[in-house]
Amino acid sequence: MSAEPEIGRRRFLAGLATAPLLGAVPARAAAPKRIACLDYAGASTLLALGITPIAVASLDGWAKWVGKPQMPEGVADLGSSWEISFEVLAALQPDLILTSPFLAHLTPRLEHYAPVLSLDVYTAEDGPVLTRAIAATRRLGQAIGREEAATAFLQQADRMFEDCAATLGGSETPPVAIISFLDERHVRIYSAPGLYDSVLERLGVANAWPGAANVWGYETIAIADLARIADPKTALVVIEPLAADILPSLERSPLWRALPFTARERLVVIPPVLLFGMVNEATRFARLFTTAMAERA
């Protein structure tokens, strides 16, 4: 897609404050199917395509790990994705069950209740997660008769990425390292092939971390390992949750203070985004990241 005309930071930020969630794309199918989801990313994508799932696994954790889009009332909780309540599933009589490759061991049993569709996004295959998430969204749209809704949703997401990239200004944005704190000595740091790294690539922002990640797009390192980041212009992006005492404690550490990108003016904190998400979560991360970087500039 060709780049949109350059948009001002002020207008962009104001637009984000009033823009509806990308999950608001209307679907044109006459009636949604009865779909049960064992995967948060699949449930989020269903909402984006205009369908409310009849049940979601680990529903009690949705607000904490996903947050937005909000799950409508009346959706049943299937219990933990590792210990599905098959009694609830049988009573609901779904006509499709969404799952992921990491729950493949449940497929033979699930198939007794309804056809099973696995959205293969986080796999050992090469390639960015965002590319696979886009393909999985199209596949889901086709499977549930919502091809037009899937196309509209992906076009809207693409426009969001274009706007974010224009606001960030490409080469004007420094490389970034994205972390979340485990404790005062250890962090998760995010790189290819994960969702966060895929979004950085789409926005034209360099990831400063030189290491390789697991299939989920992260590795656990000691804070001292951050010294491997060579570019002194790097900005540090911290993903919440962030304990209130972490940064004050680290600011007393000579090692932490010696890292140039840990200075307050180079550090931004953004709300949590589901790490194992799809396009909805990619656009949420892009929006939060762009807003934080633009306000920092």
UniProtKB/TrEMBL annotation:
Domain Fe/B12 periplasmic-binding: where?
34-297
Compartments (UniProt record): Cell envelope
What CDD domains does this protein map onto?
Answer: FhuD
| Matching SUPFAM superfamilies | Helical backbone' metal receptor
Q: What is its main location?
A: other
Query: What UniProt keywords apply to this chain's record, in alphabetical order?
Result: Ion transport, Iron, Iron transport, Signal, Transport
Q: Which domain of life is it from?
A: Bacteria
Q: Which GO terms describe its cellular component?
A: outer membrane-bounded periplasmic space
**By its UniProt entry, which Pfam families does this protein fall under?**
Peripla_BP_2 (PF01497)
Entry's Gene Ontology BP terms: iron coordination entity transport
UniProt record similarity statement: Belongs to the bacterial solute-binding protein 8 family.
Q: What is this protein called?
A: Iron siderophore-binding protein
Organism equals Martelella endophytica
